[in-house]
């Protein structure tokens, strides 16, 4: 029994050591961007595209970068305007689309929208 | 002597297997292949090292058992290279570690837009502690081994391209810790020219970064081997049965997830020069049933280079 426990500890230790976490980034002397709204073009239907636009601004006038992610589905495009294609798996479920806006100094604003997939 | 040779082949070559360790069941499985879960007994002080390559093409979409046109005309492929090491530090005990590298892509067409996602890198590492309950011997025709293990989220699951995070089915990793149970039964037939091995692997995934819990995965691989030739060449007839439960979001089942699949995996193992063994084969679907619309594997192939060394 002690052998099993020892081997398990070694195994988990080896596997944990392979894991990684991304480091955070920030700049205190900067104003973060502001997301005014996230606009969706219509219903989320499997096999059809939904256009999503994020309207954001930066108080310091910095250029903004947009980062998109979706729980279940494909996002195509870049910048403030993207297309979303709901995954076939998830008809009848809510799915989350998230946009993160970042200025040149690393300050961020984030907004999530939830779409019901038909 | 012939019996001993067959036993050696069972120990070293009964790797006919292919275990898809991680699939993102929302979009079908483009998994990795592991040979080490089809090997039971390893002599004390022995180290087995292997490189296992597998290619899986996914060009079919099923709704139940019916072949349908994919709503996004999806096509996907995956290359996997598993680096395996198994060491037996104590009698009957061994530890298997697998580091998978993956390169996978999916292309889709929707709303007049054709797009492609692609990612490559380290996938989720996998470890298994094995105990051989009944080791192979010239007297007893049975071998029985059991094991417990974990799959760790070592693969990147936040890979992005052009300001968009890639879908989870294309990510190299799954973001989950999975518990793994494993068992192997081997039987040597009386004439000592043939043997059969049944290995079963049960994987219970944890919750992923999106709050989804992938379905429990049960895979059984039946391997029939015979050595009818004087040359060190062994044909392997394998069949894999795989059942994957539907995913859950909270307590709710995700409707279009979960599969049942039977595959035929013909292969050949050759001992080119001692102590190296080469194995290669194909992965062909026989029967498949999905819950809802899912992209599924069309065919695949695999190859393996393996060696076993005695360290002490």
Number of domains of chain A: 1
Q: Which parts of chain B are unreliable, with pLDDT below 50 for 5 consecutive residues or more? A: 1-32
- How many β-strands of chain B, per DSSP? 21
Classify the secondary structure makeup of chain A into a structural class: mainly beta
Order of helix and strand elements from N to C terminus of chain A = HEEEEEEE
CATH-assigned fold name of chain A: Immunoglobulin-like
Inertia-based shape of chain B:
globular
Q: Count the domains of chain B.
A: 1
Question: Which whole number gives the mean pLDDT of chain A?
Answer: 83
Morphology call of chain A = elongated
Helix content of chain A: 10-25%
End-to-end Cα distance of chain A, whole Å, is 52 Å
Counting H and I runs of at least 4 residues, what is the number of helices of chain A?
1
Number of strands of chain A: 7
Question: Can you list the strand order of the major beta sheet of chain B?
Answer: 1-4-5-7-8-11-12-14-15-18-19-21
What would CATH call the class of chain A? Mainly Beta
């Amino acid at each position: 029994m002690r052998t099993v426990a020892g081997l398990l500890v070694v195994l988990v230790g080896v596997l944990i050591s392979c894991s990684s976490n991304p480091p955070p980034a920030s700049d205190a002397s900067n104003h973060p961007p502001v997301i005014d709204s996230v606009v969706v073009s219509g219903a989320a239907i499997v096999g059809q595209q939904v256009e999503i636009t994020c309207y954001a601004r930066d108080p310091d006038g910095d250029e903004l970068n947009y980062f998109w992610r979706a729980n279940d589905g494909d996002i195509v495009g870049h910048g403030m305007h993207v297309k979303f294609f709901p995954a076939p798996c998830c008809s009848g479920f809510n799915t989350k689309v998230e946009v993160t806006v970042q200025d040149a100094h690393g300050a961020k604003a984030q907004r999530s929208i939830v779409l019901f997939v038909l | 002597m012939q019996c001993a040779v067959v036993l050696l082949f069972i120990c070293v070559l009964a790797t006919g297997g292919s275990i898809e360790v991680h699939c993102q069941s929302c979009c079908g499985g483009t998994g990795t292949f592991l040979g080490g879960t089809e090997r039971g007994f390893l002599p004390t002080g022995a180290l087995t090292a292997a490189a296992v390559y597998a290619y899986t093409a996914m060009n079919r979409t099923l709704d139940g058992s019916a072949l349908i046109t994919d709503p996004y005309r999806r096509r996907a492929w995956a290359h996997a290279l598993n680096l395996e090491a198994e060491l037996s530090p104590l009698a009957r005990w061994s530890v298997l570690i697998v580091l998978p590298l993956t390169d996978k892509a999916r292309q889709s067409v929707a709303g007049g837009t054709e797009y492609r996602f692609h990612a490559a890198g380290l996938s989720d590492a996998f470890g298994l502690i094995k105990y051989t309950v009944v080791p192979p011997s010239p007297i007893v025709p049975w071998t029985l081994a059991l094991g417990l293990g974990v799959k760790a989220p070592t693969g990147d699951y936040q890979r992005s391209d052009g300001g968009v995070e890639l879908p989870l089915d294309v990510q190299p990793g799954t973001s989950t810790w999975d518990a793994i149970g494993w068992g192997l039964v081997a039987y040597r037939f009386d004439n000592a020219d043939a043997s059969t091995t049944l290995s079963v692997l049960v994987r219970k995934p944890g919750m992923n970064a999106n709050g989804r819990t992938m379905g429990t995965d049960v895979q059984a691989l039946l391997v029939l081997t015979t050595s009818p030739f004087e040359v060190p060449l062994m044909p392997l007839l394998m069949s894999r049965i795989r059942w994957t439960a539907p995913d859950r979001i909270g307590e709710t089942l995700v409707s279009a997830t979960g599969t049942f699949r039977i595959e035929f995996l013909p292969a050949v193992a050759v001992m080119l020069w001692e102590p190296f063994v080469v194995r290669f084969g194909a992965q062909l679907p026989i029967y498949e049933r999905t819950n809802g619309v899912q992209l599924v594997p069309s065919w695949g192939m695999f190859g393996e280079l393996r060696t076993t060394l005695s360290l002490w």
